[in-house]
Amino acid sequence: MPRAVHDQYAKGWFKFLLANFGKVEIEREVSGPVRRIDLVFYPDPKHLESLQSLKLVGRMLSKPALIEFFRNPVPTDEIAKCRDKLLDLRSELKQFAKKNGQILYNRDLPFLWILSPTLSQTLKHRRRAEPKPEWGEGIYFLPEDDCTAIVMIHELPVTIDTIWLRLLGRGSVQAEAVKQLLALPKDYRHRLETLDHLAMLRVNLQIRHNRSRDLEEIMINLSPAYEEWRNQTLAEGQRIGVKDGISKVALRMLRKQMPLAEIAEMTDLTIAQLQALQSDQSF
Fold this sequence. Notes:
By secondary structure, the chain is α/β, with parallel strands linked by helices.
């Protein structure tokens, strides 16, 4: 998946996933040269316990954090750029606190998490990135003063604790995570919204005319999630009655910004009917 597509997918999904647990900012601008942080998260103290339902992600984000997403292995110059953004944001927050007569301790300042499929041994050595036993495999911390860790998605253990991160992986790693997601109980927390997001990504990729081999790979990986989502969505429509069910299903798809042609094919509604539905709901 090209970097831009991966960024859009990762940021949109994490924003939705974290919305109930704290303040989420995507494309957060920092001072100095025009730079944007993929995602900034400030956990709500009242929801720290429920945040742990996200397993490893919840543990990572129990304190203020920056997340930078990488589809390909992160190069050393990008690590430096991410660190610069972290320092700029921390400086901004300190200045804001001082201006308002507040005290901001280091423990309250954001920590940087870089999500990358892999990381070369050379880069680990150069950046002095080391694992910590209490965090397990796949997570490498830079020296303490750097306030940065790199998550090697393809090195994470294949467990339920890591599934939300492995869905951001590539090839067989992502495919296995999708398979594991589908095997979860249907009422498992975050399963449905994750399925929705993956299905929407699959639809959006399908309508692209010039798909690279990378995009074709991601479409294959997401196809089981899309089929599961499609079957569940249509079954819901049948359960609550044909007319009301079709309208509810169509509205759900419209809110997810699915293409009208795709919705029409799945619901047997015309484009005109869907446009009228959009107008009635003030989309």
